[in-house]
Amino acid sequence: MTEAAIELLDVRFDYEDMAMRFDLAVAPGDFLAIIGPSGSGKTTLLNLIAGFEPPASGRIELGGLDVTALPPGMRPVTMVFQDHNLFAHLDVKTNVGLGISPALKLTPADRERIATALDRVGLTGFEHRLPGQLSGGERQRVAIARALVRDKPVLLLDEPFAALGPALRREMLDLVAEIHREKAMTVLIVTHQPDDARHAATHTAFVHQGRVLAMRKTKALFATTDIPELTKYLVT
After folding, report:
1. pLDDT tens, position by position, 79-89
2. Are 210 and 47 in contact (CB under 8 A)?
3. How far apart, in whole angstroms, are the C-alpha atoms of residue 139 and residue 3?
4. Shortest CA distance to 46 belongs to which of 138, 132, 150, 158?
5. Quick one: pLDDT at residue 72?
6. How would you write the chain as a 3-class SS string?
7. How far apart are CA 166 and CA 99, in angstroms?
8. pTM of the model
9. What gap in Å lies between CA 196 and CA 44, rounded to an integer?
10. Is 217 within 8 Å of 185 (Cβ atoms)?
């Protein structure tokens, strides 16, 4: 049996008046979309995997290794956020270089990796621009390039394209899907748009009130009629 790329075993986390409890197993190479109502725990789930939130109890495994107590920097994951986390005073190539070395001690080989990553996301020629000189989609491309140079096996995306219009959001999803196939990465993306899951994800998980109520192949999940909470979510 193939070892899970990501596994949460009875992971508990309390937030205000919600007691969350997550059990989840994601196979290597899956592209998993995470959907559910606002405040259901989707972002918390990613933060637990990335190490930004410590669980009250339970076990988190990445590639079969227990990472429950490891800090974010020691976990084999990269996370892309909605606000892209770019430094406004640093140009594009420098922002990407931070993914290799926070101290920006870069070798010629590192600089070549940066150039390759920028080319892959369609930003060759943008190296010396500041984030404020870029469109929203271009800024997210920089964040994805930074994820590429980190070259971690797990990529987590927390509503990264929520501020983009439908056409640009679809374009960015296609880019992530292409990189997913090329790199054989395990990808988890939180989205408020079920159509994002239908378009790009191999599997989809539905989160409700701090629980993963279902995780299935995307087509099968959206055909499900035996989960009232999911039905209500999709029609409202």
Report:
1. 988 776 889 99
2. no
3. 35
4. 158
5. 93
6. CCCCCEEEEEEEEEECCEEEEEEEEECCCCEEEEECCCCCCHHHHHHHHHCCCCCCEEEEEECCEECCCCCHHHCCEEEEECCCCCCCCCCHHHHHHCCCCCCCCCCHHHHHHHHHHHHHCCCCCCCCCCHHHCCHHHHHHHHHHHHHHHCCCEEEEECCCCCCCHHHHHHHHHHHHHHHHHHCCEEEEECCCHHHHHHHCCEEEEEECCEEEEEEEHHHHHCCCCCHHHHHHHHC
7. 28
8. 0.91
9. 20
10. no
- For strands 77-81 and 154-158, give the pairing: parallel
Cβ atoms of 188 and 49 closer than 8 Å: yes
How far is residue 52's CA from residue 44's CA, in Å, rounded to a whole number?
Answer: 9
Give backbone dihedrals phi and psi of 171, rounded to 5 degrees, phi first.
Answer: -60, -40
Could you give the CA distance from residue 92 to residue 62 in angstroms, rounded to a whole number? 31
And the tokens for 36? 């559910």
**Tokens 């870029």 label which residue?**
134
pLDDT tens for 18-35 read 899 999 999 999 999 999
* Interior angle at CA 154, CA 159 and CA 54, nearest 5: 75
Percentage of the chain with pLDDT > 70?
98
